[in-house]
Amino acid sequence: MSWQSALEATGARVIPDAPLARLAYWRVGGPAQWLVDLTTVAQLSGVMRLAADGLPITVLGKGSNALVHDDGIAGAVLRLKGALAELVIDGTSATAGAGMLLTVLLRRLDEAGLAGAEPFAGVPGTVGGAVVMNAGTRLGEARDLVRSVTVVVPGGELRTLDAEALAFGYRTATLPEGAVVAFAELHLTDRDVEARQARRQELMEARKATQPLNLPSCGSTFTNPPGDYAGRLIEASGLKGLRIGGASVSTKHANFVVNHGDATAEDIRQVIVHIRETVFARHGIWMTPEVKLLGPWEPGALGRRSE
Ligand SMILES: Cc1cc2nc3c(=O)[nH]c(=O)nc-3n(C[C@H](O)[C@H](O)[C@H](O)COP(=O)(O)OP(=O)(O)OC[C@H]3O[C@@H](n4cnc5c(N)ncnc54)[C@H](O)[C@@H]3O)c2cc1C
What we know:
The chain has 307 residues and is α+β, with helices and mostly antiparallel strands. The protein is 26% helix and 24% strand. It contains 7 helices and 16 strands. The strands form 5 sheets. The chain has a 5-stranded antiparallel β-sheet with strand order 6-7-12-10-11. It is globular, with a radius of gyration of 19 Å. The structure holds flavin-adenine dinucleotide. Flavin-adenine dinucleotide is lined by residues 25, 58-66, 80, 98, 122-126, 128-130, 132-133, 135-137, 180-181, 211, 213, 217-219, 292.
C-alpha cells in the first residue's frame, strides 16, 4: 500500500501537495507532500504507527514559530483538529486538545470564569505549540499551568507525562523522540479572575504598541540572552531595517524579522544568519534562534559560530 493510501486508511483527511505558505505565519515555504488533518486520537495513533514504519512526520500548529523550507516538507504534515482541538473543563482543571488555538482557549476560559492562562496573552499559536515551545510572556509561561501532557509516540502508543518529565526550559520542552502532543491538562484558577484579565489586557495594549503586527513574522526570532534583550543587541548592532530580498529586520521591533510580501524562506534564513553573525562580531554574544526550521534544512542552516 502507498503511504497516501495508508494515511487515508486511518480515516484522516489527506491533501497531497498542499501549499503551506498560506498556513504558516511567515507566509513562505513550499508544499507539504501530504497535509493530514486529524480529528480523533485513533487517527493520530494510526498515523503514528506509520511513523514507526518510516513515514516522515512533521506537526504544524499555527505555524507562528516555524520557518518552512522553500522546497516544502516531505512526508506527512499533521494538523490537529476536531476532538484534538477541544476543551473539557472540570472544576479548576481543563484538558485542552493540542490543536486548540490559544486565543480560543483564553476566550473559553473567560466564558467559564476561569483564569491562569494569562501567560498566553497575545501568543498566536496552538496549545501543542505552546507546550513544545514553553511559550510565554512577562505574565508567565506554559510550565506555570501545564500539569501533564498526553503524547502519541511513533508506533501509536499514548503516554501521559507529568510536567516535570517535560523538563521545561526557556522556550524549550523535552518530549520523547518523535512524539506528538495530543492533549494538555491545565491547572487553572477561579480566583482574581478580573484582575488577571486586566493584566492580560494591559499586556495586549503594550504588544500592539511595540510589535510590527501588520507584516508577517514569527514574533521574536531569538531568545533573550541572559541579562540582556535580543532586540536591544540587534538594534545596537545597527541592524534595524536591514533587508535581504523580501525579508527585513523590523524597524519597529528589532527582534522581529518581517516578510514584506515577496520574501522566500531563504531570504528569511539569510537575515537570521546575518543578525546572528553581526551581533556576535559586535557584542561577542551568539544568540539562540527561537524559531523552528521545518523541512529539508541543512544542519547549521541558521549559522555556525566561528571561533
Ligand atoms: C506576532 C507574534 C507574537 C508572538 N509572541 C510570542 C510570545 O509573546 N511568547 C512566545 O512564547 N511566543 C510568541 N510567538 C511565537 C509563537 O506564537 C509560539 O512559539 C507558539 O507557541 C507557537 O505555536 P504554534 O502552534 O504556532 O507552533 P508552530 O509554529 O506550528 O510549531 C512550533 C514547533 O512546535 C512543533 N509542534 C507544534 N504542535 C505540536 C504538537 N502538537 N506536538 C508536537 N510538536 C508540535 C512544530 O513541529 C514546531 O517544531 C509569537 C509569534 C508571533 C507571530
